[in-house]
Each structure stands twice: as structure tokens, then as C-alpha cells.
Amino acid sequence: MSAKTLLNVQSSGRVNGSITRETSQILINRLTGETEMQVIERDLNTGLPFVDEQWIGANFTDPEARDPHQHEVLALSDSLVKEVKQADILVLGVPVYNFNVPAVLKAWIDMICRARETFRYTENGPEGLLKGKKAYLVMASGGVPIGSEWDHASRYLKQVLGFIGITDVTVIDATQLGDDKSEALARIISKQSTQAA
Ligand SMILES: Cc1cc2nc3c(=O)[nH]c(=O)nc-3n(C[C@H](O)[C@H](O)[C@H](O)COP(=O)(O)O)c2cc1C
Predict the structure, then answer these.
(1) Closest Cα to residue 10, out of 93, 97, 105, 96?
(2) CA-nearest residue, atom 2 of ligand 1
(3) Which of 66, 97, 102, 178 is the most buried (most CB within 10 A)?
């Protein structure tokens, strides 16, 4: 059996002292310690472009009919989609910013939700195409309780990941793991694998 692939997507604007980055790394160490895995790093800290007129025009043009410029416009989005498709496991570092996800993480979502690539329209409505993947949302806030009605970030991410087919989503509040985060995360992982078995 070939090694699994883990995609690590980090969105905190902080590089030093970031709770979501540190906790995600501990989680990844635990996951890769148990099974051999290839890890793809996608740090959103340096920013992503927003969708604009050219991007929308290219995306809504049939792939066979796209001109070279349109392929160029979609190149980054294509790479991001490829990374998500490759991944068996996604780890998303998610600080709560103004009750929701950081803008750069929303920009990433806009780049990976692509008709025909990650979802499609059927007679019964939209269908997510990324089946069989597992996602961990490693979250932190400065006061808004994760999972409460004030936390629009975890609810939104679960909805949009489900839309593209990723329905197995575990939300981890990195601020509530106690002193031994590694042990607490190991317990969460083992609970997940027991439930999946
Ligand atoms: C721009 C910005 C907006 C924030 N908005 C919220 C918020 O709406 N609610 C909240 O509880 N914490 C908020 N915080 C606090 C962060 O969620 C908290 O510091 C968290 O630890 C950040 O994640 P990090 O440590 O990985 O950078 C905000 C922080 C920043 C920088």
C-alpha cells in the first residue's frame, strides 16, 4: 500500500507564538509517527489572490476551450486543487478572526471550490467529489467558545468542506487541550480511528 498524504494548511498571520501552528505541528507529528506519510505544506501566510473577473471567466470556460492566458490565470488554483485531491488527511490551522476564518483561508476556499473539479451539479443538486478524506480543524480563539453560536468559523468550514465531499471533520479547540497537548491529541486521533473502524 502506498504512503498516505497529509496536507498541512496554515492560515494564522502569526508565525511566532501561533497556537494553531504549534498545535497543528504536534498533531502532524502524532499522525506521521503512527503511519508513514508524505506531508504537503501550504502556508497561506504570504497571501493568496482573490477571485476576479478574469479568474471567473476562465473557470466558467470549458477546460478544452480555455486559451493559454486562461490556463495561466487558473494555474495557482489548479495547484491548490491538486494538493487537496492528493491528500488523504487535511490539517487546517484556523485562528478565529472576527468570528470567522482568516480572509486568506476564505481565499483558499474560493480557489479550491471548483465545479467539475471538487464538486459537480447533478439532477439532485450539487455533489462533492472529494470523497474518503479526513480533515482536522485545529482552531484557536481569544474568547469566543469554539462550537458556540459566535463561532462562525468551524460551522462554515464544516459546511463548505462537506460541500466538496469532505464530511469526516474533527474540530479541535487548541486552547482546551491542557498541558500535555501531544497526549490529548493522541487520544483524539485514537478515538477517531476507533469510530472509523
Ligand atoms: C485580526 C484578529 C481578529 C481576531 N478576532 C477574534 C474573534 O473574533 N474572536 C476571538 O475570540 N478571538 C479573536 N482573535 C484572537 C485569536 O483568535 C487568537 O489570538 C488565536 O490564538 C489566534 O490564533 P494563533 O495563535 O494561531 O495566531 C482575533 C485575533 C486577530 C489577530
Answers:
(1) 93
(2) 97
(3) 102
| Residue 138 in grid coordinates | 485545529
Q: Which residue has the cell 482546551?
A: 176
The residue contributing the CA closest to ligand 1 atom 22 is 95
- C-alpha cell of residue 77: 488554483
Name the residue at shortest CA distance from atom 3 of ligand 1.
97
Residue 127: DSSP 8-state? E
- Which residue, 58, 90, 62, 60, is CA-closest to 75? 58
- Global pTM reads 0.96
d(CA 130, CA 117): 9
Q: Which residue from 69, 88, 137, 140 is spatially nearest to 109, judged by alpha carbons?
A: 137
Bridge partners for 90 per DSSP: 7, 135
- Distance of CA 142 from the midpoint of ligand 1 (Å): 5
Predicted confidence (pLDDT) per residue in 172-190, tens digit: 999 999 999 999 999 999 9
Residue 98 CA: nearest ligand 1 atom is 8
Q: Note the residue count of the chain.
A: 197
